[in-house]
Amino acid sequence: MAHVLLVEDDSQVREMLLETLKQEGHDVTEASNGKEAVAAYRANPPDIVITDIIMPGQDGVETIHTIRREFPNAKIIAISGGSANIRGEYLLGTADALGALKTFSKPVDVGELLDAIDSLMS
Ligand SMILES: [Mg+2]
């Protein structure tokens, strides 16, 4: 069981991932943008962060950068589907360069995501 900070601006995707993580027995804190995520991380550091990249206010790239700077051992998983203008693979490459330990393209294969959490926790 892990304490997961789930950061996603799309409420439908967030709900789906929330249910999946809870069914697996994980304890989940939700955030809908990067600013909320950094505040939640500081207040109660989770075992793992799962963050979307394209979000209003503060995006996932800046969020990963900020969290890793303050918490060098943070375990971060990045997810993205990209946008009309930017390919998801490009964004996930940036996330990887900033220290995300795993990256997944949307739609996320939840089995792979759960496996990634298990491997980061072991
Ligand atoms: Mg988004």
TrEMBL record:
Species this chain originates from: Oceanidesulfovibrio marinus
Lineage: Bacteria, Pseudomonadati, Thermodesulfobacteriota, Desulfovibrionia, Desulfovibrionales
Keywords per UniProt: Phosphoprotein
BP-aspect Gene Ontology terms: phosphorelay signal transduction system
Record-listed 4-aspartylphosphate modification sites: 52
Pfam entry (one): Response_reg
Protein name per its UniProtKB record: Response regulator
PANTHER family per UniProt: CHEY SUBFAMILY, STRESS RESPONSE REGULATOR PROTEIN 1
Top-level taxon of origin: Bacteria
Domain Response regulatory: 3-121
Stretches assigned to coiled coil: none
